[in-house]
Amino acid sequence: MYSSARSEHSEHSEHSEYSAHPIHFTAETSSNGVLTRDFTVGEVPGVLWSPAPGSDRAPLVLMGHGGGTHKKAPAMSGRAERLVTGCGFHVACIDVRGHGDRPRTAHDEKEIAELFRAREAGEPEGPIVVRYNAHLAEHTVPEWRATLDALQGLPEIGADGPVGYFGLNMGTAIGVPLTVADSRITAAVFGLHWPDALAELAKQITIPVEYTLQWDDEHIPRQSGLALFDAFSSKEKTLHANAGRHKELPRFEADSAVRFFARHLGQPVQPVQPRQPVQTVTSPV
Questions:
Q1: Which residues make beta-bridge pairs with 38?
Q2: Are 96 and 174 in contact (CB under 8 A)?
Q3: Model confidence over 40-69: pLDDT tens digits?
Q4: Of 15, 62, 104, 252, whose CB is crowded by the most CB atoms within 10 A?
């Protein structure tokens, strides 16, 4: 499905059943200088984190959540806040099918049951996760591209601004084929995934890449993580290897991603400010 290299922006119009859907905002909150807006594009629910209203046009980072989580999981909200407050970026995340606000299909239930069965039996999870994530990517790549179309119609983002992608675990399984398919993405942070379904696609990616792996990952063998990193054809690619198990990724890697996107999307990094008591204003849109 993703055999061709990065397609041109002019070819977007027929890439998805969602292409003609505009963005529809459904709720809005403001806290600590970050504007959070829930939205839908067709049947796809998402969230857009932005600088305070009135700010200049800014780059956009698409953020992919991990398996079993959702668009507003703490990791997603935390990374988005860093990118908004540290660089003044817009950050968007959508729920993948069977996650968050989207119901599971019979196929989802079957794959999840198989994953738990393998886990309880002490069998490798990798083959199941790779297969299931590849299936989800087939659906999510066109949804992401249609969402990007809609987001670029907003005046605060625009059609010609820089776009990055940030996704680990399942976010990488979806982000790699998305980056191959859509030339608007010009820098990406990936990590924590097997190379099986992604290595050939990664060879088509030449944009700057930052890649993260856990040296003692109990699910993804070290050589597998290194193989995926090696597959990227990017002239500028950086490997971040940290000691620890799969879920022990250091939080400072999120700060590294902020600096990476600041370099490649063109915004200065602001010093991290102490968190203030939360004052939230909520209103329907």
A1: 27, 47
A2: yes
A3: 999 999 999 999 887 789 999 999 999 999
A4: 62
DSSP-derived pairing of the beta strands 281-284 and 90-94: unpaired
Contacts of 247 (CB under 8 A, 6+ apart): none
- Distances 161 to 87, 133, 139 between C-alpha atoms, Å: 14, 29, 25
In the CATH hierarchy, which top-level class contains the domain 10-103+135-265?
A: alpha beta
List Cβ neighbours of 165 (8 Å cut-off, separation of 6 or more): 61, 62, 63, 64, 175, 178, 179, 185, 187, 188, 189
> What confidence tens digit (pLDDT) does each residue in 155-173 have?
999 999 999 999 999 999 9
d(CA 6, CA 159): 17
φ/ψ of 255, rounded to 5, equals -65, -35
**Terminal CA-to-CA distance of the chain, rounded, Å?**
37
The rounded distance, in Å, linking the Cα atoms of 179 and 82 is 23
Q: Where are the domains of the chain?
A: 10-103+135-265
Structure tokens at 62: 């698409």
* Cross-strand bridge partners of residue 238: 210
Task: Give, to the nearest 10 degrees, the angle between helix 126-151 and helix 170-181.
Answer: 50
What percent of the chain shows pLDDT beyond 70?
86
> pTM higher than 0.90 for the full model?
no
HSE on the CB side for 94, CA within 13 Å? 28
Task: Show the tokens assigned to 206.
Answer: 């030449």
Q: Which residues pair with 136 in a beta bridge?
A: none
